[in-house]
Amino acid sequence: MSGLRILVPVKRVIDYAVKPRVNKAQTAVETNGVKHSMNPFDELSIEEAVRMRERKLPVEDILVFSAGPAKAQDILRTAMAMGADRGIHVVVEPGKDPQGGEKGDLEPLGVAKLLQKVVQEEKRNMVILGKQSIDDDAMQTGQMLAGLLNWPQACSASKVEVDGENVTVTREVDGGVETLRAKLPIIITTDLRLHEPRYASLPNIMKAKKKPLVKKTMEDYGVDSARRLRTVKVQEPAPRQGGGKVEDVDGMIAKLKDLGAL
Hints:
Blueprint: E1 4-9, E2 12-14, E3 36-38, H1 40-54, E4 59-68, H2 73-82, E5 86-91, H3 108-122, E6 126-130, H4 141-149, E7 153-157, E8 159-163, E9 166-173, E10 176-183, E11 186-190, H5 202-208, E12 213-216, H6 218-221, H7 249-258
Parallel strand pairs: 1-4, 1-6, 4-5, 5-12, 6-11, 7-11
Antiparallel strand pairs: 2-3, 8-9, 9-10
């Protein structure tokens, strides 16, 4: 079996425990002064890659990658403290777009094209990434990357097994589980049931500061990152109406008739 050369993309997002707020201009979610952390699904990807090594699989290298502002290096260091070997940071600083939104916000297709270049230059044969990021919830990057590379894909993985060149992925579907089998190279996207991510220990955090972290730019990869979508307006959802109580089944049926549901 050839060694596993794993790429794990990670993204800096608003912390999952923070309630997002729409900015005053209603062009995006407010990010200034808001706590950020690693996308939870990406934590699972790092955990899976590290556990593959702990299961004595021939993992040659675990490379973490992020494209984002300077502060994104913090989550790359966290990923290396969890067990990744080295990192690449493509610095993309946000800037106000006259049409609304952030110039520095990469769309899924742009990210997929960037990852395609990284896979080819770094000679990766496995990419493990979160099935979605919790900021835009696009759930597109993994699938687009598989299409660009013409690799098999296994999305929303809840279990991953590697035997030689063969990879078996189990995922939950409506009413049961689905098992997918493919050969390396492969794209895997992770679901929340895959693992419980480990905490980075203080000694590992200190060691991570000495691990290689290379900074690059979009121009280094020659990728077109122009936005193809424009956000017209962002607003809070309408408040939910309170429910009502009925005394019995007849009352419920009468209420449903009044609402036109029956």
